[in-house]
Every structure is written in C-alpha cells, then in structure tokens.
Amino acid sequence: MRFPENLKYTKDHEWAKAEGAQVTVGITDHAQSALGDIVFVELPKVGRVLKAGETFGVVESIKAVSDLYAPISGKVTAVNEGVVAEPSTLNRDPHSSAWLVKIEITEPTALDALMDSKKYSAFVETLK
Amino acid sequence: MLKQTALIDEHRKLGGRLIDFGGWELPVQYTGVMDEHLACRSAAGLFDVSHMGEFVVEGEDAENYLYHLVSNDVKKIEIGQAQYSALCLPTGGIVDDLIVYRRAKDRFFIVVNASNTDKDFAWFQRIHRDGGYRCHLVNESEKWSQIAIQGRLAETILQTLTPANLSGVKTFRFVEDTVLGTPAIIARTGYTGEDGFEVYIPWAAAPKVWTALLEKGAPHGLKPCGLGARDTLRLEVKYPLYGNELSDETNPLEAGIGFATKLEKSDFVGRAAILAAREKGLTRKLVGIELKAPGIPRHGYKVFDAEGRREIGVLTSGTQSPSLKKAIGIAYIATPESTVGSRVLVEIRSNKIPAEVVSTPFYKRPY
Prior knowledge:
B: alpha+beta; Elongation Factor Tu (Ef-tu), domain 3; six-stranded antiparallel β-barrel
C-alpha cells in the first residue's frame, strides 16, 4: 500500500494535492484496492461549486458503488475524462495519472485540516 | 462467531479477502473479480462452496416424499443423475432452489443454499411429519466439503486426481468414486455457465484436494475464485440467486424456472397456488436487460417504462459483465414490457438510463 508524502488525505479515502489555488483530487491506493476492479466513474461538470464533504461523483467496481466526497470547498476547474473513458487506470495509478478533479480552493488553509501521509496510513491500519 | 469451511487456512494463504457471507467467513476475491472471472471463462476456476447445505433422504418412501415436496419430477431421476428443483410454500413462494442427486433407488442427496440450510431442513421435516412418510432425513451439511472446478479445462485437471472416467460423465450426471484416494461424489454440475464439476468430499479432506487441484491446474491457467466471481459468472448466464431473484414472494414461473416446475404432476407443495397464478396470468417476468448508456444496474434499482412515467419493475442483480464488457442486469418487469427488444429506463441515482430487454443467457459458452 502506498501513501505518498506529498499528498493530504481524508477519512473517506480521497487525496488532495495543492499547487497554488489549484487542488487536484483523487482516491487513494487503499480505496482502489478495497473497491477492486473499477469499471465506472461519474464526475461533476466543470464549473460546479462544491462544499467540503459534499458528494461530487461515484466510483463503481464490479461489486460495489462508492460515493466521492469533496475534501475541500471550491469550484471544479477540470475533470479527468481519461479516467471516465478508462476506469481501470484508477486501479493502476490512483495517485497520479488517474486524478479525478481539479478544484479551485475557496479557503487555502482548508487543506491543513486534512491528514498527512503518516496520520492517514495509521488511520487505514485501524480499519483492518 | 463466523462459521468457517475446512479451507479457511488455504484462503488466508492465497491472500483471499475474507468477508461475512451469510454467517460464513469466505473469500470474496483473491487476485480480483475480473481476473478470476476471466480465468474461469478461458481456462478453469476453483471454488470453495463447502458452505452449501447437504441433506440425505433415505427409505422406501423417499421418492414419494420428494415428489410431493419439490417442484420438479424426481421420479424421472435415474441413479447417478441430478435434477434442479424449487422448494415451495403452499403460497407458491420459493423457500429455496436446490439440486437432488439420486444415489440409489431409495437414497437421495440434496444440496441447498448455505444461508437457507436451517430453514430448508425445518421445512423438509415439517412436510415429512405431516405426510407420515417412511423415510428418514439427515442434515449432513457439517460432514461434507464441496469444491467446484469450472471451465473448459476442468475435466482435464480433475482427471489427473481420480480414476473415474470423467469424459463418460454427462451434464447433470455424477459418479461415486475417489479423488486422491478419498471417497467422492463427482457431479457434472455448476453455477458458472461453463462445463465443470462439483465435487463432494468428506469435510476434512478438502485441503488436500483443493491444494492438489490448484497445483495441477495452475499450469493450465486455473485460478482460485471467490464469491465475487461466482456471482458475476452466474449472472452472465442468468442463473437465479436466492435472495436476489428468488424469495418466498416470487413464484417459480415468474422467476423463469418453469422448466423445473412440473405442474402436470398430480401434486406438490405450492402446485395449486402456482397453477392459479398461471391461470390468472403472470403479472411480471424475470428478464435480462442491457444498459444503452453509461451506468451499472444494481440490485434494488427501479425500472420505468420508456417514457419514464410508470414504474414497471425492479433490478434483482446487475453488474458490469467482465466477459461481454457491457452493463447487464436481471429484473422483474411487468409482463407487457417484458418481451425481448422492449425499451425501458433504469433509475440510477435519480437519472433514468435507457436499457433494453435482451435474450438470455447473456453469455453462451463457445464450446
């Protein structure tokens, strides 16, 4: 299981990575592994304004349906159509090429409330 | 405390992801549902189905008793033959679906769904007591392990471990012989739509048979398969699953198992009610559907007519088909809209997605 140190994490198993006001969001390695073979992804439209904790899409594996929750508040500025077309990339590369959305953050300090890699890996450990 | 099969250590060694499946600790997957599913379709899959229940019915009235108890005609079963059947309530609702194996003139072996074992056995006893049949019933579920080996290479692999001539065993027939020297019932039955066998062996013999099959099968591409692949494999051939397609509120005709429901029999539990339902006209039918736009149908999703105005049915199972790469589902749909080619809508998270009723099985084996 990988827990890259340059990412921030939520209890719902999303990751977030800030580059200025742009925050890239995806699901974690643990999330893709728990879901199994991912076969369907539904993402929001560019321009939608999300509140932290709000459902912004869905990831489905062969067996399960799982909602996606916004880690932070902000406006969706980009969605990864490549993942929608090829959902299995989420199983192969969840932390990088299979990012899901980019959000223009409303409150830059909001990321501080998320877990760092050490905290998140410890949290995942408690779920076993 | 979850019940475990004799193969629990093997599942752990193989890295199986263990879940609570109706009170049993069983692997939902080892390497992944897709991978296991495709291995079973292209080569072979190995399944631990020891959680299934096994009953013995023996005695001079055994045949008459079962003739009265289940929907199919057990009088037509020869020694060495197996038959699929429904166990019904007087209302025509389904208690379970099961397989009856005839081991001798007066001796039957019956395999039922794991989660229904206790309920089924109580119903078996009740009908037995009420009819005063001269035969006895034993719940032998704890004595038997069951390993299924399914796929086009199943015979080749299993043949290396048994002196029985497997090519002589036809579909829905079985032989009593040995596997690795252990007495076994070897039946050409299964729940995947592939050729293959279900092997019944004494409980404790499972680890050595399982390990040997994995070893002999691996070079052929055999993989251990969990409950996830078992479900997608059966779904692609529209085999019903109790709790999804079948329940005490569905009758065998609407559930599409009329082929195992012999209404021409003089009597069986539920017959009158099923006949009455047929006379009245079936209000709904179990059909296969295929989505025509992105989405995946799932158990419980609602089905609407093509205009989206009337709710006309409900999904009982659904998935992204690993073999066909399409979103498929099984649904109860109002009879007028249940014909092949009929356009319907499936409600997925408040969107209505176009779908079509298609002929089934979705997948047909190419050999």
